[in-house]
């Protein structure tokens, strides 16, 4: 999954776009799992189990080893990170800016190259000694900051279906996506149809 961000005119753009998309999707996983109480018309318990969602993300995006340290997750840190990431998916050009800046400062996010013997260097935005949870928070927050910083913040959105607060990273060409998935799109269409039908009867 990639997103083309027009102002970038450099060699290797597709790799950079893929890099940003990977960590932006991690931010989506963290927010939807740890900070969203209403999903697809239902109320749910928060936080939801994180490891299954992370496994699905890893299988799809294949994050580099330097950013996928082993070890237990820090539920408190990740819950705090999810709360800091969530406002970035709100409307408006300044949505989530203050919260993201605070998150990046807390995690000491700074660009650096991680290198392992026999492997090429990997760009990351967490300190080389960061634990698994801190690394995820720093890299996810930086990705959202990069999306917003190049004028593509509208791609960070919240589902518009009633009763759903799931967030998503919109990779459509014209940033026109409105729903988290097909289920909510169908629910919204059915609700609109019922509303039109009711209006005709009155």
From TrEMBL:
InterPro entries for the chain: ABATE, ABATE_dom_sf, Znf_CGNR
Chain ranges of the Zinc finger CGNR domain: 155-197
Pfam families recorded: zf-CGNR
Name of the protein: CGNR zinc finger domain-containing protein
Organism: Nonomuraea typhae
Lineage: Bacteria, Bacillati, Actinomycetota, Actinomycetes, Streptosporangiales
